[in-house]
Amino acid sequence: MKLYILWHVHALVDDYGEHDEEKLIGVYSSSEKAKEAIQSHKNLEGFRDLPLTCFEIHETELDRSSWNDGFTTVRYVG
User: Fold this and answer.
1) pLDDT score of 77
2) How many Cβ atoms are within 10 Å of 16's Cβ, its own excluded?
């Protein structure tokens, strides 16, 4: 079963430096429903001040793992 996860992600600069601020909006049964949620959220407080490109729909499958090969962290030393 496919699921569609809707995130709102944007760069934020605060006392801790620059980082992404991520908000999980919801999990939907179709991409159409996720797109409808974008339409219902895009004019709400906070969301309306940022571009629509901040909304991201990620497709996944129920009962399927991610990161099956682990991960590595790359650190920049300048």
Assistant:
1) 65
2) 7
47, 21 contact by CB (below 8 A): no
Which tokens go with 38?
A: 């974008």
Closest by Cα among 64, 45, 54 to 6: 54
Q: How far is CA 77 from the centre of its chain?
A: 28
Residue length of the chain: 78
b/e burial code for range 29-58 (CB count within 10 A of at least 16 → b): eeeeebeebbeebeeeeebeeeeeebbebe
Please give the single-letter amino acid code of residue 2: K
pLDDT along the chain (78 residues), means of 10: 96 85 96 98 96 96 86 69
- CA triplet 37, 51, 25: central angle to 5 degrees? 30
Q: Say how far apart CA 42 and CA 6 lie, in whole Å.
A: 12
